[in-house]
Amino acid sequence: xxxxxxxxxxxxxxxxxxxxxxETGIQGKISAFNYYESIYSPMITGSLLLTDTxxxxxxxxxxxxxxxxxxxxxxxxxxxxxxxxxxxxxxxFKDYPLIVTGSPLNKDESNRQTIFLNLVSSTEMLSSSKxxxxxxxxxxxxxxxxxxxxxxxxxxxxxxxxxxxxxQDKVKGNHMGALDVxxxxxxxxxxxxxxxxxxxxxxxxxxxNFKSIDGxxxxxxxKFEDSLKYAYEHTYYYFNAYVSNIEEEGDNDQKVLLxxxxxxxxxxxxxxxxxxxxxxxxxxxxxxxxxxxxxKNLLSESNLGEKQEKRVPDDFYxxxxxxxxxxGENDPGVSDVVLNNPADYIPQSNMRYxxxxxxxxxxxxxxxxxxxxxEVIKLYLENITQGNxxxxxxxNFRSGYYMICHLSHSFTPTNSYTSxxxxxxxxxxxxxxx
Length: 434
Prior knowledge:
Distance between the termini: 40 Å
Shape: globular
Strand content: 35-45%
Number of strands: 24
Radius of gyration: 25 Å
Helix content: 10-25%
C-alpha cells in the first residue's frame, strides 16, 4: 500500500471564535476534512465534518458543558487553523486560518452531534466586506493587480506571483470585491513574454497567482527540465497494479489509484464553431470611419503536447467577431486613443481558454500536498495492446504533460488522497521546442 495514502497526522487543528476569544482543539472530532484549490478560484476553500459527543466546551452563558457547535455558537466568521503532517510534507495553515462561512448541515442524535462546516480563506472574507469604489489610472494591468492585492488587501509581496502584462488599462472598482475585480480582467491580459491573451487568477497554499496560460505551461515544463526532485513528485503512472515488493512500497506513492476518468475529449465540430482555428474579425472605427476585415489564425505556440496542428485552409473561417471601436471613450475631453482594442484579445483569449480544455481527465492519487493548482504534472498511461507490452510500455498518444485545474486533498481517520482534474490542449508526449 502507498504510505502517502495512509492516515495523516493532525498535528494542530483548532477552531477559534474571534468575538469572544474562545478556542478549542478539534483533532479527535474530525470525521473528514477536504481542502480545495482551483485555477478558477481566487480563494482556497474547504469543508470540515465533525462528530461531537458533547462535553467539548463550556457554554459561556450557562456554564454547562456542550458541543462545539452549541457551546461556541458556531454561526460563521470563526477561524480554523491547522497543520497536517503527511508523507509528502506538511499542509500548514496555522498562521493563515480558514474562515467558517456557515454550518449548512447539522444532525442531532441522542448521544452525538454531527456538523458540517464550509470554510474559505480569510482574504476572500475581507474582499467581500470591503468593495472597491475607486478607479485605477492607466498602467500595465499586472501593476494594478499588485496595487490591489498589496495595497488594498495587505497581502505581502512574498505571497504574490504576478506575471507581467504587455498591455495597459484603466481598472474600475465599480463597488465590487477586490478579488472579483481582478478576476474580471483576466481575459484581456496579454503576457509581456507571449502573444496569447488569457490569464488565471487563483490562490494556492503558497499565496496568490496572476499568471497567463502560456506562462503556466512554460514554467511548469521548465521545472521538469531543471529539477529531478520536482519531476519525480509531479510524475504519475497508471498500470492498474500496485508494486508488491514491500521494500519498494514508496513507489506506489506515484501510482494513480483508480482508472482515469475522461470527462472531455476532442470535439472538432465544436472547435470549428467556437473559432478554435481561424476566425474572421471585423472592426469599425467610429472616429475615422475605417472598416477592417481579416481572417486570423489563432494557433498557439505554447502547448502541453505536440505543436497544435493547422486543420483548416488559410481562407476558411466559421466564427465571426465584430467590434465597434470608440477612440477616447475612457478619456475625458477629446482623445483618439484606443485603449485595449477588444479585437486584440477577445477572439484570442476565447481560443486559448477553449484549447486548454480540449481534454479533461480526472485522477486520484495518494495524498501529495506538494501539488498545487496551476502546476504541470506528467501522466504516463499504460499501452493497451495484444502484443508485447515491454516493447511499448506507455501510450505515447495519451501520456504526457497535463495542467492541474482543480485539486482536492481529502483526509479521513484511515486514508489521505489527492483528487485532480487535469487539462490538456494537444496530444502526444511533449518534445522540447528549443
